[in-house]
Amino acid sequence: MSKITTARLLAMKQARQKIAMITAYDATFATLFEQAGVHAILIGDSLGMVLQGEDSTLKVTVADIAYHTRCVANGSEKAMIVADMPFMSYSNPEQACTSAAELMRAGAHMVKLEGGDWLTETVTQLTRQGIPVCGHLGLTPQSVHVFGGFKLQGRDTEQADQIKRHARALEAAGIQLLVLECVPSQLATDISQALSIPVIGIGAGPDTDGQVLVMQDALGLTSGYVPKFTKNFLADNGNVAAAIEAYVAEVADGRFPGPEHSFN
Ligand code: KIV
Ligand code: NA
Questions:
Q1: Which of 32, 53, 101, 206 is the most exposed place for a label (fewest CB within 10 A)?
Q2: Residues paired with residue 177 on neighbouring β-strands, in sequence order
Q3: 45 annotated as belonging to a binding site for a ligand
Q4: Residue 44: closest CA among 260, 226, 202
Q5: Could you say which residues bind Mg(2+) here (predicted)?
Q6: Annotation-wise, does 231 bind a ligand?
């Protein structure tokens, strides 16, 4: 596998090759996942929950993400490295540029931010400064207290149309990748077809241009509540490398996600 760039991800969408993305927070897993064929590694602010044991992502700082981005970057040679912009680190374009610069200097190739058309100016500024941006719509966990829990988004036509409008606005502003989390499969299909950029789903059905999972979920390490859209790939695959190879293969040929992992 040669180095994965934004151009390569776009070409994969155009060739209908599915993109496999997974979170990692350290060099050991980054190396292993990349060798298993993962195209993109996300340093997610999910680390607030899976590493720090918090019940949301809100306490994660830019310094936390930068530290783990450096760890991942040191273990990775080819994958696209995407770093999450944490809660309140992009409340205006200037702050976003300062936060993103720290993550890019730590080794990220792209930053991800949660939200819709109110971020268009921020997306344009970041892109102009040389920082590729990934959007994130649907269930955006930094807004958990606004949503009143981790819930499926875009359920009725009005909500779905709003998410579509936000997706188009972000694309027009310059995002080069979009994560759609916890939305009905049909909405994710519509958005993936409407946009020219690759759309990566999690709990968004089988028709997006790729999938992303939190590594702890993909390896069955999550205790307590396990989301419906995840799958334990370690259960049938003996070791971590084989499990993630199976994840990449099942994303590639459409076996994952199945209807049991999707919302209709
Ligand atoms: O923080 C994270 O891990 C994420 C993914 C679930 C998309 O944002
Ligand atoms: Na995140």
A1: 53
A2: 134
A3: yes
A4: 202
A5: 45, 84, 114
A6: no
Q: Cβ of 47: how many Cβ atoms within 10 Å?
A: 22
Of 64, 84, 73, 81, nearest to 27 by C-alpha is: 73
Would residue 94 show up in a list of annotated catalytic residues for this protein?
A: no
pLDDT for 49-78, tens place per residue? 999 999 999 999 999 999 999 999 999 999
Identify the residue whose C-alpha is closest to ligand 1 atom 2: 44
- The Cα 117–Cα 174 span in angstroms is 12
The tens digit of pLDDT for each residue in 133-146 reads 999 999 999 999 99
Q: Which atom of ligand 1 is nearest to the CA of 46?
A: 1
Cβ proximity of 30 and 72 under 8 Å: yes
Domain boundaries, the chain: 6-261
Give the integer Cα–Cα distance in Å for 77 and 100. 21
- Which pair of structure tokens corresponds to residue 40? 């993109």
Task: Give the number of the atom of ligand 1 that is nearest the alpha carbon of residue 112.
Answer: 8
Of 107, 109, 78, 110, nearest to 2 (Cα)? Answer: 78
ipTM above 0.95, yes or no: yes
Distance CA 191, CA 170 (A): 12
Pick the ligand that lies closest to the CA of residue 215. 1
* Fold adopted by 6-261: TIM Barrel (3.20.20)
